[in-house]
Amino acid sequence: TGYPLAYVAARLAMGENLPSVRNSVTKTTTACFEPSMDYCVVKFPRWDLNKFKGVSAGLGSAMKSVGEVMSIGRNFQEAMQKAIRMAAPGMLGFQPLTTFESDEAINAVLSNATDQRVDALAAAFERGDSVASIEAATKINPWFLCKLHTIHLLRKHLQKRTLQTITAEEMLLAKQQGFSDKQIAIALGGADDVAVRRHRKELGVLPVVKQIDTLAAEFPAQTNYLYMTYNGTMSDQPVRKSGVFRLNHEAPSTMVLGCGAYRIGSPGGVDWGSVSGI
């Protein structure tokens, strides 16, 4: 959000109060200002436990992830599905995989958290488990389970449609819930994801670029924390000019492509070189 947490915490520890601490980012406001909460952020871990011999897959208070991602959306479902795709290449989002051999294997992961727990949740919904039964097994707050169940129900609904019968409203809802074009293609019976993308654009279902308001709308936000979402009708700051997003009408924009979430064996110098190159 751009809120200087460490700086403010240090000043508070020295005895100052919030109204007197200046925001080191804006220079003009005090630390009392909070970001406008019209967005949702999900931080999702990257696991590489299978690369270590003899390491238990069980999760507890020990730090076992080798990295994490941060996704931003306008709702939890959108941000969650983004995060899953970012942290685990090959996973399309919150949907079941063929990694569990039996119901007992699913139950074991539900009761005892491992790095496959998200997969187990999707598999449990797929076999017909209720939110209440999963809450009893996992002790996960039902708010999160209800949101994940919403994704599951929408995927099952899309399986009743084809590329020719899906409506613009259904396509928009799927994108607002974080479904990728490839996810939608598979749900529609194995349609080509390029064809889904083409059809989506023909239906007028397009993303917008939103800006995180770090100053709660009290002052103009100067920092560009931008994210793309389908939960909106208008971009906050960028404008489309000659097919390219620009932050204003004069200066061209720069896009930095990193190597994704850190994992064992990933070259950290790729990210360092990309950022330093700017």
β-strand amount = 5-15%
Cα separation of the termini: 22 Å
Proportion of helical residues = 25-40%
What is the assembly state of the chains in this entry? single chain
Mean pLDDT: 83
Q: Name the strands of the widest sheet in spatial order.
A: 1-2
Order of helices and strands: HEEHHHHHHHHEEEEH
**What's the helix count?**
10
Low-confidence stretches: none
DSSP strand count: 6
Query: What does the main sheet amount to?
Result: 2 strands, antiparallel
Which class of secondary structure composition applies to the elements? Answer: alpha+beta
* Radius of gyration over C-alpha positions, nearest whole angstrom: 21 Å
Backbone shape: globular
What is this structure, in a nutshell?
The chain has 278 residues and is of the alpha+beta class.
List its traits.
single chain, 278 residues, alpha+beta, two-stranded antiparallel sheet, 36% helix, globular
Plain-language structure description:
- The protein is α+β, with helices and mostly antiparallel strands and 278 residues long.
- Helix content is 36%, strand content 10%.
- The protein has 10 helices and 6 strands.
- It has helices at 5-13, 76-87, 103-111, 117-126, 131-138, 142-158, 168-176, 181-187, 193-202, 268-277, and strands spanning 40-46, 67-73, 208-211, 226-229, 239-241, 244-246.
- The strands form 3 sheets. The chain has a two-stranded antiparallel sheet with strand order 1-2. A two-stranded antiparallel sheet has the order 3-4. Strands 5-6 form a two-stranded antiparallel ribbon.
- Strand 5 and strand 6 form a beta hairpin.
- Helix 3 crosses helix 4, helix 5 (131-138) crosses helix 6 and helix 8 (181-187) crosses helix 9.
- The chain is globular, with a radius of gyration of 21 Å.
- The model has no long low-confidence stretch (mean pLDDT 83).
